[in-house]
Ribosomal RNA small subunit methyltransferase A (Pseudoxanthomonas suwonensis), 257 residues
Amino acid sequence: MTTSHTPKKSLGQNFLHDASYIERIVQAIDPRPGDRVVEIGPGQGALTLPLLRRHGALTVIEFDRDLVGPLAEMAAPVGQLEIIHRDVLQVDLAALAAGGKIKLAGNLPYNISSPILFHALDHAAAITDMVFMLQKEVVDRMGAGPGSKVYGRLSVMLQAYCQVQPLFVVPPGAFRPAPKVDSAVVRLVPRDPATIHIADRDRFAHVVRAAFGQRRKTLRNALRDVCSPEQFEAAGVSADDRAEQVDVAGFVRLANA
Ligand code: SAM
């Protein structure tokens, strides 16, 4: 693509230009024959074109009108590119899967990476796997376990529904313009719904949010309006613990109780 496009900070536009990292990400996405691949935020096509060369067909969701025309032009001689010009948060990913499943990928706009992750979780049943690049700090939080300083709501919510596999770090110099922070690539594999055992997703989300909303407090205080002593007892979770000490299974039991 021409370099005349001025990157928009408000849309988290840091474009990848390092060929070796591009190749590693495409290998991590690893589209197989028959896969329906959807890329979020194709930008100037850094991942899009190699994916299209390898896979032949691809759907992309891009919010920046200025990038849509050049993307279509660039892709035309290479393969079949469907461009959805919308805010990804407004796109029904399950509908894109059309009864099947999609493989989701993207170098995400960092300013809305958490909302995109939660949006994808809402459609996890229609997704085989996701390979995303995000700020390294966010990937650290996604994969953290109890006792870690960065274990929090994002860790519990993602790990409850997906396996989280951090893959590799990408330095700022791989992008133009260079972001201020390191990035990292992560794979998320949605768990089989039969193994999740969350009775009510909204209630689970509410308990986790309330517990980490006041993470310095004991659960007895943080969840004062949410869980009774009997419910702590039934869940086998100590009300004297703080949220950061409770594992994902503990939150599931607490929400179910
Ligand atoms: N994939 C390209 C790359 O690796 O060079 C661009 C990645 S850039 C970090 C993020 C991309 O997401 C930009 O192209 C930006 O315009 C797009 N984007 C930002 N907000 C979006 C939204 N709400 N919905 C869809 N795309 C969005």
About this structure: The pocket of S-adenosylmethionine is lined by residues 11-16, 40-44, 46-47, 61-64, 67, 87-89, 107, 109, 112 (CB under 6 Å). DSSP finds eleven helices and nine strands in the chain. The mean pLDDT is 96.
